[in-house]
Amino acid sequence: MLKQHIFFWCLLLASLASFAQDKIFLRSGKMIPCKIIAISENTITYRDSLQGSPQITLSKSEVLLTEYQSGKIFMFSKDPSSEAKTNAQQGFTSLPEMSETREQRKARKMNEWKEQEALLPNGILGFYIPDIVFGRLTVSYERLFAGKSMGVKIPVSLTYDGMGALAEFSSNNSSNTNTYSTGSNTNTSNTNNGNTNNPPVKRNRGTGFITGIDINYYHDLKPKLKYFFGPRVRYGTDMTLGGLEGLTFQLQNGIFKSSGKRMTSTVGFGVGFFKISSKYINSATFDPKQVYPWASFTWRLGFRL
């Protein structure tokens, strides 16, 4: 009996002197440093301290005591059913979540998410649905690096004068309505030097292309939610702006959210400048030597590949 008491206290002192992590002390005298996953009525499930290790399940009858990194210790009898009854009578719990602080729970959930995230694909194919209304059909591909803490994105946009097309359509409908409502009076007004009070609106016909590169740095806010920031560069022709060709540079930031195993969504806002191409050197409207302020708002629907 005395030897058993000495053995127990030696084990306890050894646990206090070792580095902070969960530990399982077996009745055979072996100590296992690990991460305790769950304690059921008859078994204890744990994962080795090495990352990526499989889960292992032990019978409680093999275990003398467990110690969590928080310092909380649970002792077990050889009869698991009697030990469970004793814990229930004393108001103890064998579930690690019940003894966690709020910060420990956050850290545990984040670690669990990072383990899941590491198994997800590093490629994201993105679609910018709101841009369609403003004259851009945009698709992007982003590759994540460094444990998904950094991303390099290449977007490609087909541009057209979407707002001009809407204005042209509205103007034509308005002209047709006026002609119908005024009847013969319209013919009289049109003979005044061939002019009308409201000339029809014309859109900029044709298409252009814009491409560039984004470099994003990601910081975890909580599981499945990241904050990102980084530079954004674009060069090409924007048909909505009258077919202007130029370079934009911005610093952008935003929120990146994961949904399930495949879907992501990104909301971003950027500010910077716009410099017109030198081909407009003789333009009376724009000065290619001038730098103009620029800003953008983006929403991307992404799919992991």
What does this entry look like structurally?
This protein has 305 residues and is of the alpha+beta class. It has three domains: 2-100, SH3 type barrels (Roll); 123-161 and 205-304, Porin (Beta Barrel); 163-203, no CATH class. It contains five helices and 14 strands. The protein has helices at residues 2-17, 80-90, 102-117, 162-182, 184-190, and strands spanning 22-26, 31-39, 43-48, 55-59, 63-67, 73-75, 123-127, 136-145, 150-159, 208-222, 225-238, 244-259, 263-276, 291-304. An eight-stranded antiparallel barrel has the order 7-8-9-10-11-12-13-14. A hairpin with a 4-residue loop joins strand 8 and strand 9. The radius of gyration is 33 Å and the shape is elongated. It starts with a helix and ends with a strand. Residues 14-19, 88-98 and 180-196 have low confidence and may be disordered.
Tally of domains:
3
> Please, what is the oligomeric state?
single chain
Shape: elongated
Q: Please count the beta strands (DSSP E, at least 2 residues each).
A: 14
Q: Low-confidence runs (pLDDT<50, min 5 residues)?
A: 14-19, 88-98, 180-196
CATH class of the largest domain: Mainly Beta
What is the architecture of the largest domain at the second tier of CATH?
Beta Barrel
Q: Outline of this structure?
A:
Helix content is 23%, strand content 43%. The chain is an alpha+beta fold and 305 residues long. It folds into three domains: 2-100, Roll (SH3 type barrels), CATH 2.30.30; 123-161 and 205-304, Porin, CATH 2.40.160.20; 163-203, no CATH class.
